[in-house]
Amino acid sequence: MINGHGDDIYSQTTKIVSNFSSNMYGLQNMKALDEHLRANIQLIHSYPEPDASSLVKLLAEENSVSHENVLVTNGATEAIYLIAQIFSGSKSAVIYPTFSEYADACMVNKHAVLWASSLSKVSSEADLVWMCNPNNPTGTVTDKSEITKYIETHPEQLLIIDQSYEFFTTKSLFRSEEVIKYKNVVLLHSMTKHYVIPGLRLGYITAHDEIISRVKEYCMPWSVNALALEAGKFLLQNKIKVVDISLYLEETQRLREELSLIDGLSVLQTDTHFFLCKLNEGKASELKRYLIDNYGILIRDAANFYGLDESYFRIAAQSVKENNTLINAVKKWMEQK
Fold first, then answer.
1. Residue 2 covered by a domain
2. Are residues 22 and 145 in the same domain?
3. Does residue 130 contact residue 104 with C-beta atoms inside 8 Å?
4. What percent of the chain has pLDDT over 70?
5. Which of the residues 59, 65, 175, 228 could staple to 69 if both were Cys, CB 3.0 to 4.6 A apart?
């Protein structure tokens, strides 16, 4: 999805002062990382490790698995495209509404895309199954026991579970050490989301060593740059804690409750820090334009998610002050309708 994604500040002519459009919490204090990268800027003058081996070692330790069960990628998106490339020409079931890159990567690699609204609706013809958990854009979490049952009863299908938002929920999710025994499961992880470093692009895969070995055959050397590797190592070695998830989810719930009181607006349930809203009348694109022009607030128009329409938008909770400004701004727009 080159166009129509969240965090599209670069395409705005009005200054954005509050960004609700990206599924990240933008108020973390990352000064320590900033200073460390400035002090190591000379790394850009040498090639990085071709296979990110030093970061692989740290991630293996962090996830209690062998280095043979870990592969570092240029963001979770590179992992998505690599897997789709490996299984070119397959039939892929994509559980929707969800991140568009699963279907995009599949179509680029000549997969037949079979849409499904849940695991229980997945076609038996599918070779691969793609799901996001917690799911983007809904914020909902599929129960771990349901997924486990599916894995064990469908050994012929490869299940790719994108856990990019795993640090932003209190629901039980898979740990890497739990899935490496299966030969039909891949977990995708995002350091980008966890540590708010989308400009560096840093993610990784954990899976059975046979799967990792196969993906490695398709990897481009030096796909992860030197500063991204240095950032990843610094964050893990220093045990950087980014956000108090309990407090953050409490504020998310308060924001949801306040928005749900606005006439003409429906607010959907969530298990994490972002959620969908639906306008009873009007277009989300119109609200987005109003908020940008009058408040410098950016939300995510969700119309281009498969299965949604132009009435949906997604927001990720921010600070109490910013959230209150958003609530009042949406109220004002709705009153003018």
1. no
2. no
3. no
4. 96
5. 65
Show the domain range for 277: 9-28+244-336
DSSP sequence for 197-248: -TTT--EEEEE-HHHHHHHHTTPPTT-S-HHHHHHHHHHHHTT-----HHHH
Domain boundary among 173, 208, 237: 237
The verdict on 263 and 310 lying in the same domain is yes
Residue 91 is inside which H or E element, if any?
strand 91-95
Whether residue 57 sits in one domain with residue 42? yes
pLDDT confidence of 13, banded at 50, 70, 90? low
pLDDT tens per residue, range 77-92? 999 999 999 999 999 9
Q: How do residues 253-282 score in pLDDT, each as one tens digit?
A: 999 999 999 999 999 999 999 999 999 999
Q: Are 93 and 129 in contact (CB under 8 A)?
A: yes
Q: With a cut of 70, say whether residue 12 has pLDDT above it.
A: no
Number of domains in the chain: 2
The reply to whether 46 and 178 lie within a common domain is yes
Rounded distance, CA 76 to CA 204, Å?
6
Place of tokens 């996001």: 132
Question: Is 41 a member of any domain?
Answer: yes
Q: For residues 50 and 96, what is the distance between their CA atoms, to the nearest angstrom?
A: 35
Question: Based on the domain organization, do 203 and 55 belong to the same domain?
Answer: yes
Say if residue 76 is in the same domain as residue 220.
yes
pLDDT at 219: 95
Q: Give the three-class secondary structure for 45.
A: helix
Tokens read off for 27:
């108020």
Q: How are beta strands 128-132 and 70-73 bridged, if at all?
A: unpaired
Tokens of 37: 């990268």
pLDDT of residue 3 exceeding 70, the answer is no
Tens of pLDDT along 184-227? 999 999 998 889 898 999 999 999 999 999 999 999 999 999 99
